[in-house]
Specification:
Oligomer: homodimer
Number of strands of chain A: 19
Radius of gyration of chain A: 22 Å
CATH architecture of the largest domain in chain A: 3-Layer(aba) Sandwich
Structural class of chain A: alpha+beta
Strand order of the largest sheet of chain A: 12-13-15-14-16-17-18-19
CATH class of the largest domain in chain A: Alpha Beta
Order of helices and strands of chain A: HEEEEEEEEEEEEEEHEHEHEHEHEH
Number of helices of chain A: 7
Largest sheet of chain A: 8 strands, mixed
Shape of chain A: globular
Number of domains of chain A: 2
Helix content of chain A: 10-25%
CATH topology of the largest domain in chain A: Rossmann fold
Chain lengths: 377, 377
């Protein structure tokens, strides 16, 4: 019975339920992959000459060849949210031509958006929309022209006398400057929160974390790269010396630490701990989503400030820590850090995304939970 | 000798010259494809279990398998500029994992940027940069939220009292709202022209041409689609009724026809003829790059205005027509139209891009030639 169940979940061949619909992450007009009401995905690809076709979407499934040369499989129910996936044709991992692509795991990848019943905080709605602006600027530190994305809230151009607080929001390892506005939908999440009066209008700056050589995106070309997969030495300096001054000179920001936040996911969370500890004069609001390591020491962290919870709470307006309930091991380190903070009486906000792992649904929800808390006092 | 040459160009196995470099269109860090000084590209992909691997980059090349499981090929010299390409693994056409992706031919595709010696008008330089803004808005005509890109020139935010003329710039069939700012580099071309004092600062609006079902991009989801591959009936109405009023209400435009241009490439050129003939009260500047059909009749076109060259020249400040010298057949129709205009004494500007076909290098050069002429009188 157990064996049968195991076999069934790794090589599903059931047809999708009749209520299946094309994934919203497909190229327009593509009918596959499609997702049914049980959140099972059916993949389909034409490969009459291939010997073996698989899909890697968390688990790996073997597709079955039909007489028409199409290979298909229906998966077990998928977790809600966005998942990277790949097709493996005779051992070669490639993208599904039916999918849009997303920069993740250091390359352009297919992605599937699994709807989350009753959860629409990241859906495009008929509300006023902000802009996501591609901004090029020269970085002296990197000695290169860099490229970041800047979210400006819906009324930015209509209220030319207003100034706004700024959230610097970083992606994870193997992702790049595009992550938060495509996979993450940061702009849509803020549009909806602002329209509902639940978050203050803010500017969000999405820069490139200056990832290891071969692991960065377009934004990191020519600058900020470091070998070995570690957060680049250059990025904190670029952010502090070049990005923040450029943003403050270009956009109508409120340019003090009380109106500046830094947050990031995974590697970006680790960078957030690193950068805010070294530059607490620059940021009063801190968020880390699924940081895998780099947690501040409770005795020495933040130059010893963490050891004085009262002084820390005065200096740090928000320390937001989150992860998904399905994250474990190193990826689950945030829970341990939260428990230590709790025990030491350090004021912070902890959030766990139910049922999700080290993936974008955890980080969308984390942003959705954190944004209403930002710049509120 | 001929056979040998033919064979050589279709199944090159020569190593690249020592001076080869990774293509700038690669995912950062990827060493292949690489291009040598003779503009020959070398492709390389690991596929130890595959029976046959090809690359389709204009011509189709067979790759040769090495003992290490890597398949490679070096092509004949490629034409300068941007080309879509695909890897064919055991008969399945997929993207090269080493390449960034670009929305073209109705799907996400690999692309290779072949450098053009001595031609750098579309290179990112140390000049002031404008922004490319992703703008969401509700279209009553489409009954959907749409998504377009808006280029604002470098000084837009610094000179809040200035107003700007607007160029509406359309992509081709199978491409979408992303084409002009990624493959086309429209923003970089304008940044460089404006910095050199060769073009006026302008706003560029890049909307989705509302292509056939399954041929559109994200921008067209939910609206403007028509079957059969023809320009959608809906797009002209969306542009006139919704997009232009939204742009004039949202950005600091000069909102009369003397300060509004419409241009497009391929299908976008055909749409430009269609829309400007029906709405000459809205546009005084017209550009078509590689339009394949839909050329106005010299007797009846523009409501008969074309038959009166003097009146036409008074109404239409610019009629810019272009194509590549390597375009033939229907794709070469612009030359025939130009010759007819010439013969009829209709004032226009004709440009031929030397050595290029129905591809982005033709359209980058066309924009670079046309932009300095816009809004100059």
């Amino acid at each position: 019975m157990l064996l049968l169940a195991g076999s069934r979940s790794w090589a599903q061949t059931n047809a999708p339920a009749d209520d299946s619909k094309p994934a919203s992450s497909n190229v327009p007009g593509q009918q596959y992959p499609r997702i049914d009401s049980e959140l099972r995905a059916t993949f389909r690809i034409k490969a009459p000459e291939a010997q073996k076709v698989q899909v890697s979407v968390g688990a790996t499934y073997n597709l079955t060849k039909g007489e028409d040369g199409f290979w298909t499989v229906t998966t077990k129910p998928l977790v809600v949210g966005f998942h990277y996936y790949w097709i493996v044709i005779d051992g070669v991992t490639v993208n599904d031509p039916a999918s849009e692509t997303f920069f993740g795991v250091s390359k352009v990848s297919s992605g599937i958006e699994v709807p989350s019943p009753g959860e629409d905080f990241y859906a495009v709605k008929a509300v006023p929309h902000g802009e996501v602006r591609a901004r090029w600027y020269f970085s002296k530190t990197a000695n290169a022209t860099r490229h970041c994305f800047v979210y400006t809230p819906p009324d930015y151009d209509r209220k030319p006398r207003l100034r706004y607080p700024v959230l610097y929001l970083q992606h994870g390892m193997g992702e790049d400057v595009r992550g938060w506005s495509t996979q993450g939908r940061a702009n849509i999440i803020l549009d909806n929160l602002i329209a509902a009066g639940k978050a203050k209008p803010i500017i969000i700056v999405m820069e490139d974390g200056g990832i290891a050589a071969g692991m960065g995106g377009r934004g990191s070309r020519g600058g900020g790269a470091a070998p070995g997969g570690a957060p680049a030495a250059g990025f904190p300096q670029i952010l502090i010396n070049d990005t923040i001054p450029m943003i403050d000179a270009t956009y109508r920001t409120i340019s003090d630490r009380e109106h500046r936040a830094l947050a990031g996911l995974s590697m970006g969370g680790t960078q957030t701990y690193q950068i805010t500890q070294a530059n607490l004069d620059q940021f009063a609001w801190i968020g880390t989503f699924s940081a895998p390591f780099g947690f501040p020491d409770l005795k020495t962290g933040y130059n010893g400030l963490l050891a004085d919870p009262k002084a820390f709470a005065k200096q740090v307006k928000l320390l937001f820590v989150s992860m998904g309930t399905e994250e474990a091991g190193r990826m689950g380190g945030s829970k341990t850090f939260h428990e230590a903070l709790e025990k030491a009486g350090v004021k912070h906000v902890y959030y766990e995304s139910p049922g999700t792992a080290h993936e974008w649904q955890t980080w969308r929800r984390s942003l959705h939970e954190m944004a209403p808390l930002l710049f509120q006092n």
